[in-house]
Amino acid sequence: MGPNTRHGWRLPPRGTARRGTANTQARRRPRRIGPPARGDLIAGISVALVLVPQSLAYAELAGLPPVHGLYAAAMAPIAGALIGSSPYLQTGPVALTSLLTLGALSPLATTGSATFVAYAAILALLVGVARVLLGLIRWGALAYFMSIPVVTGFTVAAAVLIVGSQVPSLLDTPTDSDNPARAAFDALSSPAEWSVAALLVGLAVVAVVLGGRRISALVPWVLIVTIAALVASRTGLIDIAEIGTVPSGLPPISLDLPWEAVPDLIVPALLIALVGFAEPASIARKYAAADRQEWNPNREFIGQGLANLAAGVAGGYPTGGSFSRSALNRMTGARTRWSGAITGVTVLAVLPFADTLSALPTAVLAGLVIVAAISLVDLKPFLTYWHYSKPQFLVAVPTFVATLLLAPRVERGLLIGIALAFVVHLWRELRVDLRTTVKDGTLYVHPEGVLYFASAPMLETQLTALLAENPTITRVVLDVHRLGRLDLTGLMALRGFAEQAQSYGVNVEVHDVPDHARNRAHRVLDPICRVVTTEPD
369 with 515, same domain? Predict the structure, then answer.
């Protein structure tokens, strides 16, 4: 071969790009962004106008004073835009992460207290550290780790709890319960204390935002209802409960926190880091597929981790990616990650004037949270699981029920769901199905499943039973090409069966051993029975 050939193929002359090389290298290089485009500026500001009232509402859901939602809304999008993979993903306070925060912190401190606020900042920092580390060690595949039935059961239950948590504010009835279901029950059982005005305002917010989105998703209906309610409250047109003092000024950057609480927050932080990443991951994947662009979960983990670190340092709480704000970001012209940074800077510019939001009715915030949660209440998947897979139905429903019953410690419901998913998986993996035929004194056996340490004893028992059921056979042919995996324990089980068959005067042959187990199968089985392996392609 000449200097310009390799493995028999002629290489292009030096300096000539090979076909596909530039595209391949472009896909492998981290996406660089230039200066913000006009679309990024418009999109970033548009999202910020929606994020400001939403962040106040989600902070209340998390049990925090509303201003801490603004702190997270300002800092998280800026930090998340530094290295994230998706140009559209908008980071900040979201409903599900807010509920998880409430569940993690309510057993440790009184909601709304200074201690609760400090713990929320620590929780955000721990979530940030976990996500950054997961991204750096390239464990982004954990975004796909939880089974869909678990996520469905947990998400729907969480949405129900989120709606329930807003009932007291919607009816303007006081409650001192941290359990959303209990708070909703207490409020609904005291009709004499309901405020009709607050109820009408909250329902109007829900109706305008949901109905307005059907008219045009580009119109900032959230901002419109917020401004209208704020004006009505300040001019005395409505007289209902307000959110109260919202301090003006930039976020108080500090790490002077009660770090002794870290051991109590590690497990909730890990759960939020993983569960809270499911939403931004699905958003980023969806839009990457639509634009035929690459999406890197490891970079997204790091970006979301940086967002949470920034939120924690600024006195905020754990953040995530928002479906509605990301969709608005894309529709209003965003093209790069600059749009997220512009959103954060815009919220930051609002903070010196945050006190103007003090007269905002709490019923408005309740309506905004309910709007966000309603979209998550989807019962159709449960019917699908019942129709196609009863075991998966029996994972989703108990997860749903456990999450409701264990509120506000909703993360425990999620852990129960994960445990159930593993039990169902192991139960299914224990089964090795056998198809058998008998012809001319030969028993042909076609096992299907996964042969490993847990399923091997059951397979050996089944094969031994087949010998007893067919006393006239002199030969057994095991076709193992449908076994998903053959580890050493599985091969030893086959060897044990072959030895037992020999004692009955029956010869055993193992056919179509897959390539990955070929060498080991010969070493383990050749002394006892004949092994016929498939040749690699």
Answer: no
Which one-letter amino acid corresponds to residue 384? Answer: T
**What are the tens digits of pLDDT across the range 147-183?**
889 989 998 999 999 999 999 999 998 777 778 888 8
The 10s digit of each residue's pLDDT in 335-350 is 898 999 999 999 999 9
**Tens digit of pLDDT for each residue in 293-308?**
777 888 889 999 999 9
pLDDT at 4: 45
Here the CATH number for the domain that contains residue 448 is: 3.30.750.24
Q: Which of 359, 374, 389 represents a domain boundary (last residue)?
A: 374
Q: List pLDDT tens digits, range 176-199.
A: 777 888 888 888 988 888 999 999
What confidence tier does 375 reach under pLDDT thresholds 50, 70, 90?
confident
Length, in residues, of the chain:
537
Residue 162 tokens, joined? 């989120």
288 shares its domain with 183: yes
347: CB partners within 8 A, 6+ apart: 48, 51, 52, 55, 70, 73, 74, 77
- Rounded to the nearest 5°, which phi and psi values hold at 400? -60, -50
| One domain, residues 446 and 370 | no
Q: What is the pLDDT of residue 147?
A: 80
The Cα–Cα gap between 163 and 170 comes to: 10
Cβ atoms within 10 Å, residue 422 = 13
306 and 224 fall within a common domain: yes
Q: How far is CA 51 from CA 89, 221, 426, in A?
A: 13, 12, 43
The pTM score is 0.78
Does residue 450 sit within a domain?
A: yes
Does residue 513 form part of some domain? yes
Whether 407 is in a domain gets the answer no
Of the chain, the percentage scoring pLDDT greater than 70 comes to 92
Separation between Cα atoms, residue 57 and residue 73, nearest integer Å: 12
The answer to the question of residue 410 being in a domain is: no
Residue 408, preceding peptide bond in cis (omega within 30° of 0): yes
Do residues 357 and 454 share a domain?
no
Alpha helices in 221-296 (DSSP H): 221-234, 262-291
Structure tokens at 350: 């609002």
Q: Which domain holds residue 88?
A: 35-374
- Quick one: 84 and 210 in the same domain? yes
H or E element: which one contains 371? helix 362-374
Q: How far apart are CA 422 and CA 428, in angstroms?
A: 10
pLDDT beyond 60 at 13:
no
Degrees, nearest 5: CA angle 339-341-344: 110
- Per-residue tokens: 112: 């709304």
- Show Cβ contacts of residue 269 under 8 Å, excluding neighbours closer than 6 positions: 104, 123, 126, 127, 130, 318
Backbone dihedral region of 190: left (phi > 0), alpha (psi from -120 to 50 degrees) or beta?
A: beta
What's the structural domain count of the chain? 2
Say how many CA atoms lie within 13 Å of 6 toward its Cβ. 3
What residues contact 91, with CB distance under 8 A and at least 6 apart? 76, 77, 80, 81, 84, 280, 303, 304, 307, 319, 320, 321, 322, 340
